[in-house]
Amino acid sequence: MNGEHIHSAFDRDLEQLQADLVRMAGLVEQALRDATNALVTHDTELAAKVRREDKRIDALEDAINEEAARLIALRAPLAGDMRLVLSVIKISGHLERMGDYAKNMAKRTDLIADHPMVETAPAVLKRMANQVIAMMHQVVEAHISQDSALAHEVRDSDAEVDQMYNSIFRVLLTYMMEDPRQIAPCMHLHFIAKNLERIGDHTTSIADQVIYAVDGLRPDEDRPKADLTSVKDLTGS
Amino acid sequence: MNGEHIHSAFDRDLEQLQADLVRMAGLVEQALRDATNALVTHDTELAAKVRREDKRIDALEDAINEEAARLIALRAPLAGDMRLVLSVIKISGHLERMGDYAKNMAKRTDLIADHPMVETAPAVLKRMANQVIAMMHQVVEAHISQDSALAHEVRDSDAEVDQMYNSIFRVLLTYMMEDPRQIAPCMHLHFIAKNLERIGDHTTSIADQVIYAVDGLRPDEDRPKADLTSVKDLTGS
């Protein structure tokens, strides 16, 4: 049992762990895509599917945690490898929460289906969802290829999600003030936008994990770009 | 080396791990308290302290991760114990992010100190910070005593933080529309409120970890109370 042997056994276990993480991210992405489509097209059938499938996401988190713990116990990885395994544990936790938000979005499909849709809302929500899905893709790619520059990009682009959230919040507020009958559907739309914004936040947390696992450093600044885009956003209206 | 011996060695290690987690939570709480006071009283000295102290929070997360990994490797804990150790790893990750948000708040003290303070902002921010600090206290207590009922309470009370954030967002928006010179300071205040709201979200994630570690179940609903308080909030204005 020489160093090389131990190393390759660790690599094999790690590959399995990464494959499960990618599978988990794929399920979360699908859930988010389905939840958004269900909302926009009032497809209660598709929404029900999202709610059912969330159990598979939860089960994968459990499996990943067990595998990771087994890997630590068996292979006793050193500094850099250990950081990587711990980052997988933390990333799986974020993905699980993101799945919950998608499920929560799906739950509102039934509630929204009874109301006429606020005009501009579907387009904005869809754009927000697409942005978040693109970020998820990137951050998983950044994790797998251990690419901290890509992770930094993901961090920066979360400011756009925040900006979309702020703008939809103001649009909905205006609708509600103009017509109190719009309050119930607008409120649901607001929480959907909020969920998307939170999914964006979790993506940023995953990006932080990647940066830490790769560089051993924590990102110093907390998304500096958010300020500038916000100034533009708030003065331009 | 019988079962009891192994068990007590695990307990001793776990106690050490929990003590460090409590210490870490204490530092994050202090950072949040100091960052809020620095902002409200324009105390740039205190803000600088918060920024310096964040390194200690980061170092404690590293120490906790290492200890937890050592504990898994050495004691190979079974189902319930393993869930508990994994939850400590995940909770330390959330606390580290919360510390970052406090640091980010502190960084804005210098920027805000040059402007006259928006009248109602300090009181609202302080109330929001106090609410978040109270939740942090509760959730750490829930973790240490493995009390899932208390964790559920924390989850529910996050809706109040969201409500405070929404109300301050609208107040700041009004200020900015009325007087464009207020845009810069209001923007900073908005990001501070946003940071507090995100700290609240992380507290909720910790509560979820506690519930999962104790009951082996994931909280089903995503903070159902938020809807009701928001209806009241949005119609009452």
UniProtKB/TrEMBL annotation, chains A, B:
Q: Which residues form a coiled coil?
A: 14-70
Give one Pfam family, short name only: PhoU
Q: Which domain of life is it from?
A: Bacteria
Q: Which ranges carry the PhoU domain?
A: 21-109, 125-210
Provide the protein's localization. Cytoplasm
Q: Which UniProt keywords apply?
A: Coiled coil, Cytoplasm, Phosphate transport, Transport
Q: Fetch the InterPro entries from UniProt.
A: PhoU, PhoU-like_sf, PhoU_dom
Q: Name one GO biological process term.
A: intracellular phosphate ion homeostasis
Q: Which GO terms describe its cellular component?
A: cytoplasm
Would the keyword Coiled coil be found if you checked this record's keyword annotation? Answer: yes
Which NCBIfam families does this one have? phoU_full (TIGR02135)
Subunit architecture: Homodimer.
What family does the entry list?
Belongs to the PhoU family.
This molecule's function is given as: Plays a role in the regulation of phosphate uptake.
Q: What is this protein called?
A: Phosphate-specific transport system accessory protein PhoU
Task: List the gene name.
Answer: phoU
